[in-house]
Specification:
375 residues, alpha+beta, Gyrase A, domain 2, 6-stranded mixed sheet, 9 helices, globular
Length: 375
């Protein structure tokens, strides 16, 4: 999570000194007492009055709403849209159809991940491509289309009770299937919902025009959903073992190293970065993403060395405290040549101090011994 910085007027500046963008819900966040921080060129809520741990646990047990309007939307339309995305992105769109969503990657020529993306296939000739905030311009340059980010807000209602609460706001949005997409009307205005999210829980993301975003947000909260910020979104995705661009994905990190080979459509035609990825598949990745469970509450930190004996075997890419396990957890890129097995003890050097940890599956929650069918 990027650190907070605020100017004297309370408007967080970007790294270049220009003001960060604000979502259509900014005033609502201020009224709710949110702690606002710069993130990906936007000023977004890190947490609200209850704090990150409370928001995290509310998502695991009930339902929360995130403002994720900082994510981009690049709309690609027309008769050539399908072919354009097929030859640019890694996944195979022919495996899905209109009314579906698909996770995919945009690669550099060396096979590393320029961005990880969700594509909403809204109708026959319309695709809403959803890049990460800081990568919207790169994705726009790669695929063309129209940047419609400023025209809408995206509200992610997540948690085991998310659909129950959302039903009273929009029954049609609440009924959208997992990784399905549907158009719905709210108070006479056209919106789009997708059964997607980034928490490891069930949920729905609603893209609503900016003009009605505040009213829609108010209706969601009035339905019994608690607000949650990017702090909880980060700890939730880490528990679920989901990669974050700039940490587990990015320059020098390929889908195969991140354990995401399933997002590559090997049986389709050419796409950007395919040749490099095929070479890596043939030789095998030199490192792979692994999970770590700390022996205590202190979390491993990004950039920390993962050591077995007197040899460094990997580097932490993300680490934090797990509110559900009440221990430190992390993701790390570990050398495949080291042949480190799940359950093996390692040491993570954090600020000059050795922290005991165990190598584990990337997904920390629910625990592997949880009852079958747990969310």
């Amino acid at each position: 999570m990027e650190g907070a910085a605020t100017g004297g007027d309370g408007h967080a500046p970007s790294a270049g000194g220009t003001p960060n963008r604000r979502s259509a819900l900014h005033d609502r966040h201020v009224a709710l007492g949110a702690k606002l921080v710069p993130f990906g060129g936007w000023e977004m809520p890190l947490s609200y009055k209850e704090g990150t741990i409370s928001e995290h646990r509310a998502c695991r047990s009930a339902a929360v709403a995130f403002d994720v309007s900082h994510l981009g939307t690049v709309q690609v339309t027309g008769p050539d849209a399908f072919d354009l995305l097929q030859r640019t992105l890694t996944n195979d769109l022919s495996k899905v159809a209109p009314g579906r969503a698909q996770y995919t990657h945009l690669l550099a020529e060396d096979g590393s991940v320029t961005d990880d993306i969700i594509v909403w296939w809204v109708d026959e000739r319309r695709f809403d491509v959803m890049p990460n905030a800081s990568n919207t311009s790169s994705v726009l340059a790669a695929i063309g289309g129209t940047d419609t980010t400023a025209d809408r807000a995206v509200i992610a209602v997540q948690g085991p009770d998310a659909r129950i609460h959302l039903r009273s706001v929009s029954a049609q949005a609440a009924a959208v299937g997992r990784f399905h997409v549907t158009k719905f009307d709210w108070r006479g205005v056209s919106c789009v919902a997708a059964g997607t999210g980034y928490t490891g829980e069930d949920g729905v993301e609603c893209a609503v025009p900016s003009a009605i975003a505040s009213d829609f947000w108010d209706a969601v909260l009035a339905a019994g959903v608690a607000p949650a910020g990017l702090g909880a979104r980060d700890t939730l995705r880490l528990e679920a073992g989901f990669p974050l661009h700039g940490h587990e994905l990015g320059p020098g990190i390929t889908p195969l190293q991140a354990g995401l080979g399933w997002v590559v459509g090997w049986d389709k035609g050419d796409f950007v970065g395919r040749a490099a990825l095929e070479r890596e598949r043939e030789s095998g990745p030199l490192r792979r993403l692994r999970g770590l469970r700390a022996e205590g509450r202190q979390p491993p930190r990004e950039g920390s060395a993962v050591e077995r004996g007197d040899r460094q075997v990997g580097t932490v890419t993300s680490g934090n405290f797990s509110p559900m396990l009440e221990t430190g957890i992390a993701l790390a890129l570990v050398d495949t040549a080291a042949v480190v097995s799940d359950g093996e003890s390692v040491t993570v050097t954090v600020r000059g101090r050795g922290l005991g940890a165990v190598v584990a599956p990337t997904r920390a929650w629910p625990p592997s011994d949880a009852k079958a069918g747990a969310a």
